[in-house]
Write a sequence for this structure.
């Protein structure tokens, strides 16, 4: 049973900024704050201060965290709740969830930022009512989360969809920006890759520029591969790069073409605009998903069906 | 409750042959028969005859089918249990599971051949005790099945892992044999692709031949992509091509290399031989998985945990 007036805390922890929020049992946002990600001590300290000062007399019922990574989300692991081998300086091997659990003394739910965003979109956004779908964010990095039959993907660790290997676009000589793999998906199509291709902010590029054609190539190939492995009912595409809305119809057409006549589901053949969609919650998907993680940690239900 | 002496029927339906078996509640094979896949009427007729004649006085408790595809495995769909848009002549839009349910009057469980094989490996084989893993078969076609948190992947339809798009191996000019997509994973690395590359049976190629190097390239890229999307605890590689056991150590080394230092789980870094493995049930994974589907259809439990 959930308390009637349960109050949940949520943290969407990104490499650039933290979003902290307090929400109710329906995941409505009651309070929300953003601040930059600096050192772990300072940043986690600010989050603790926010929840202590704003959660009222009864305090939080539970806390949920959706974090940049890689993280260890495996319950029972000695490093559960840690950010592990991240390239983000100072954050390697940080006991993130444990620090908050000790400071606030509440149950803590913990997952990747993208699994949290997928949860948020499933609870209140563009994947409401679906049981199997993926959420992909194309921004500073590329990450993916997914629910399969209502269950978040964990397994060995968590998805790392940004590090898939994709065929090169014809004639594309760009070497890629991923420090680990060079020309993986993230290396070829993240925000920094786009900026490096454009030699600056890409906003002024005309919509028919070859750079966009290449971006459509990689994004479509990645979506085809996700569709082939996960068979999602829908794929949500978020993140800063996807603010370029002209990419959506082009990606839909190309995914249709690449799947040819093989996956003959009406969703792909006749309604690609319902198969590949922007987030329903915009930039709040992650923090609402974090609230859903908190609700789950308190014993409430998060998942679809 | 399961009957004490439940008797399950299982069909592994391949494009070349059918394997039918009768098993007990522990999924031990009591009877087993194989025959070639000809027309639907003749082939399904032989299966019905086998189960009618061999299931004894009490008949079957339930039947499970793992089928070549594409199929419709969605419960409640008007075409549930159908083989749909298969290239296999005469089998398009065949009401496979429905025909058997009407003839035998028992509950029928139905899924893809590879989801069934994944189930079999999870119940008794190389994935026993794991909750999130993939089973990939590299044979006449390339197909994949998976369990995520103990749940088989369905979603929009079912996985089609053979149709992922992968980067080309350097200098590889082979155009691919997939009738739908040319140079998708199946087009480049299935049994027929291997045979076309070799200009005949590949068995006599020396282990250091460039063709094997190319095969290792595509298989490893596919495994990396599956790892990035699904985060499986293990990937099982079966099918005729993988009888070439010399491929296993090379694929393991290359997957380690491609994941670089990014996915730092001990399973991949220190024990790749436990991450990428051959099937534990050999060629019986599919039919044992079909028996597990039958047990599930009868109300018994199939999934891990």
């Amino acid at each position: 049973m959930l308390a009637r007036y349960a109050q949940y805390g949520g943290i969407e922890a990104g490499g650039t900024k933290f979003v902290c929020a307090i929400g109710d049992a329906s995941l409505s946002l009651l309070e929300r704050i953003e601040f930059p990600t600096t050192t772990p001590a300072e940043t986690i300290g600010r989050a603790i201060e926010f929840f202590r000062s704003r959660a009222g007399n009864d305090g939080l019922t539970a806390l949920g965290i959706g974090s940049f990574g890689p993280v260890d989300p495996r319950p029972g692991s000695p490093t559960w709740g840690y950010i592990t081998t991240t390239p983000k300086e100072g954050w390697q091997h940080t006991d993130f969830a444990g620090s908050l659990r000790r400071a606030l003394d509440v149950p803590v739910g913990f997952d990747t930022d993208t699994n949290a965003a997928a949860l948020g979109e499933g609870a209140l956004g563009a994947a409401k009512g679906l049981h199997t779908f993926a959420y992909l964010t194309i921004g500073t990095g590329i990450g993916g989360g997914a629910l399969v039959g209502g269950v978040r993907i964990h397994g060995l660790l968590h998805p790392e969809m940004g590090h898939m290997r994709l065929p090169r676009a014809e004639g594309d000589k760009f070497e890629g920006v991923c420090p680990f793999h060079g020309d993986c998906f993230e290396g070829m199509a993240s925000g920094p890759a786009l900026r490096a291709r454009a030699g600056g902010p890409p906003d002024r590029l005309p919509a028919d520029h070859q750079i966009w054609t290449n971006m459509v190539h990689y994004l479509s190939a990645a979506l085809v591969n996700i569709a082939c492995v996960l068979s999602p009912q829908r794929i949500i595409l978020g993140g800063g790069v996807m603010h370029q809305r002209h990419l959506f119809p082009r990606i839909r057409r190309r995914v249709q073409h690449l799947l040819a006549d093989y996956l003959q589901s009406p969703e792909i053949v006749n309604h690609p605009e319902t198969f590949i969609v922007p987030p329903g919650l915009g930039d709040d998907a992650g923090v609402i998903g974090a609230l859903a993680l908190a609700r789950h940690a308190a014993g409430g239900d998060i998942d679809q069906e």
